[in-house]
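User: Predict the structure for this protein chain, please.
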Amino acid sequence: MPRTIWSGAISFGLVSVPIQVVSATEDHSVRFHQVHLDDMARVRVRKYCELEDREVTQGEIGKGYKLSKDTVIPVLDEELQQMPLPTAKAIELVAFMPAESIDPIRVGDGYYLQPDGQVAAKPYKLLAQALERSSKVAVAKFAWSGRERLGLLRVRDGVIVLHAMHWDDEIRDPSELVPDAVELTDEEIAEAEHLIDRLTRDDLEGPEFTDRYTEAMEQLIEAKREHTEQPKAQEPEAPSGKVVDLMAALQESVAKARTARGEDATVHDIPKKAAAKKTAKKQPAKKTAAKKAAARKPRHSA
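Assistant: Here is the predicted structure, written as structure tokens:
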């Protein structure tokens, strides 16, 4: 059972649901230590006080805000916990909206919320079923780790999941990354859509959705432990230097996707009714500096 990260309550109007927060994911990455390669001894980071020139214990370490070059304001954990902020001890639901209306770039890590005790079971289930029947997600505010955050609540297999979300001013404007205007034929767009259709699936199960990097790392460590030959990486194909025929590449990709699924890999013919028609992708007008500044509204956080 994962350990409790945070405990408090979900504030849903006048309804309060006591909950505990646990991690919804696990990290299976291969971990390394920093070592001295001459003797394989551990290399550790030690914490020193600059003024006293000595190592300090964790109990002597706290938070400080640098007000000026010579002035640091100490801030205790107890003081942060006692701040007059409703979201410091509750996940406050502030709005409900369709999930598809939220840009996925704003959604971060997920945490499971479990009811804290039998008294919380009924209001917890009430909120979960109400979210499912409404086909909506809840937008919430909560305060963790010294700052107020935006969150999204949804239901997964009967359990309420909390996703941390980014504030508006934390999302960078991508307009300057948009490529220059290019011309695309209807046939090229249709073939790309056809490739998407061939690669569309309903789940993420299968060997292509396994962590091959971690597997390769484990094989490398095992080979070094057993003093056997280490696995070799495949040599990448050298670039041909030729200009890529986009249509031919798309058609070959569709054929490979069909073969992978055990289907007929014959390349289909593209209708020629719009052979001469081309569509131009227009580059959106760049925002002025004034508009960018106006879009970044100030927010208050703990």
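The CA atoms of residues 64 and 74 lie 4 Å apart.
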